[in-house]
Amino acid sequence: ELRALADYVAAEIRDRARVERAEEGxxxxxxxFNIDERLNNPLFRAFIATGLLVPPQLWNLRTxxxxxPKYYDQIAWFMxxxxxxxxERAGVIDFAGxxxxxxxxxxxxxxxxxxxxxxxxFVIDRSTERMARTLGLDPxxxxxxxxxx
Length: 149
Hints:
By secondary structure, the protein is an alpha+beta fold. The chain has helices at residues 2-18, 42-49, 105-111, 128-135; strands at 29-32, 52-53, 73-78, 86-92, 118-122. The protein has one domain.
């Protein structure tokens, strides 16, 4: 069941990105997938068996504020389908101890979240040619964004 669902979702995502005239081919899958372990979890194995890449930098980081590590949240993409080079850097923003310090951990998690934000770094081509192509502009014309900081 899990594998069938993972295969269906992966195919759906890939098809949407690969359709000619797709608005954007760079699709990143992220969310709370209720995966409580990484390698020993059938859902996680089904998730990555579809070709989705979860950055190895996230594999051992807990994504929730809890005494027992949980890995519910994921960021993933299909290698080869993404034209944004992965910078080999990813992590979580562990805000525990930074907000509502006066509250017990459980109360803090109710006010903010018991999930930590995840991040991944990609290289973005900001060359004039790429920006012009993305915006549908003529690269020979003056840069309309030159005054933007």
